[in-house]
User: Fold this.
Amino acid sequence: MASRKSQPNRDNGDKYSILLPTYNERENLPLIVWLLVKYFGESGYNYEIIVIDDGSPDGTLEVAEQLQKIYGEDKILLRPRAKKLGLGTAYIHGMKHATGNFIIIMDADLSHHPKFIPEFIEKQKEGNYDLVSGTRYQGNGGVYGWDLRRKLISRGANFLTQVLLRPGASDLTGSFRLYKKKVLESLMERCVSKGYVFQMEMIVRARQLNYTIGEVPISFVDRVYGESKLGGNEIVSFVKGLLTLFATT
Amino acid sequence: MTSVTRTSQLRGANAELSGLAAPGRVALSATPPASAMTKLLQWLLGVSLLGAVWALVTFDLLGLSLPRTYREVAWPMPVYLLVSFGCYSLATVGYRVAIFNDCDEAAKELQEQIKEAKEDLRKKGLKM
Ligand SMILES: Nc1nc2c(ncn2[C@@H]2O[C@H](COP(=O)(O)OP(=O)(O)OP(=O)(O)O)[C@@H](O)[C@H]2O)c(=O)[nH]1
Ligand SMILES: [Mg+2]
Assistant:
C-alpha cells in the first residue's frame, strides 16, 4: 500500500480522476502509476486512476491488472476497449466512468510528470478556474530532448496559432490539463477534431464558452520507452486543423 | 521539489482586445454565447476596414483634396505593414526558440525516479 504519511488529509469532497489512455505503454504504465501514487500520497488529495487501454498488443493491460492488485481497485480502474479507437473517444470513454469532480488528462508515456499535478490543483483552487493547462512555453516550462528543428516548428506553429486564433492560453497542443468534470463534458460534446488539433480545439472552445483558464509551467520530457505514434504528416494535418478552427470558431 | 513556479492567469483577455467579439461574460451553464463572428470573419472585417481607409486616403475617393504628402505616405503603407509584421514574427519566433528551456534537470530527476520506481515495484511483486 502507498505509505500514508502524516500529511494533511484534504477531505473536502474534491476528487481527482486521472485519465490514462494507453496504447503499447507496457514499460511506462507502471512508472507513471508509481509516480502518481507517490505525489498524490504526499499531497493527500483524493484520487483515482483510470486506465483506458485500447487492446495494446504488447500486453499493457496485463501490467495494468497487476498494478490494480498492488494498489487496489479503488485507486486503479481499468476501462479497456477491444481495439484502437483513438484518443478522443478514449477520453470520453474514461470520463463516463470517472467518479471525481475534477478530471486530469495526461499522457502515459512519462512526458507529463505527475509532480506538477499538485501545482495544477493549487492553481485551480486559487482562481476557481474551469480548467488548468500545463504550458511548455512560459515561466520555468520547457522541453527535454528536442533539437533545434523541433523547437522551431513548435514555436512557429504556436506563434501562428496565437496570431490567428488569439486563444487566451499559451500552450494549445499540450495535453496535460485539469478540468472541472462538467466543463470537460461540455467541451467534449463540442469538439470534433483529431490529434493535436483536438487539444487546440478544447482550449479554443473553452474560451468561446467563457470558461476561465489557468496555466502552470511544465517540463515536457520526450518519451523514453516505446514508439511515437504520430507520423510524418503531422504538420499538414496541424495546418489543416488550424485553418478549420480559424474558419469555424 | 520544484522551484518557485510562475503561473499566469489568462481570462479571455483577447476577447476585449479584439473588440469585435466581446460578448461579455456569460453564465457558465448557459449555451455558447453565440460567438458572433468566426476568427476568419474578424480578420476579413479588420483587413477590409484598413483597406478601405487606405484606399480613401491614397486615391482621395471622398474628394477631400488631402495634402499630397498624405497620399505619398499612405500609398506604400500596406507593404510597410507586411514587412514589419514579417520581421516582428521572425524576431519573436527566433527569440522564443532561443529562450526555450532545456529541462536537463527534469530529465535527470525522472531517470532517478524511474530507477527507484522499478525497484519498489519489483518488491511489490510486479512482473515486467
Ligand atoms: N487508449 C488509447 N490511447 C492512445 C491511443 N493513441 C495514443 N494513445 C496514448 O495517448 C498518449 C499520447 O500518445 P503519444 O503516442 O505519446 O502521442 P504524442 O505524445 O503526441 O507523441 P510521442 O510522445 O512522440 O509518441 C499515450 O499515453 C499513448 O499511449 C489510442 O488510440 N487509444
Ligand atoms: Mg507522448
Remarks:
- Residues 43 and 64 of chain B are 28 Å apart (CA to CA).
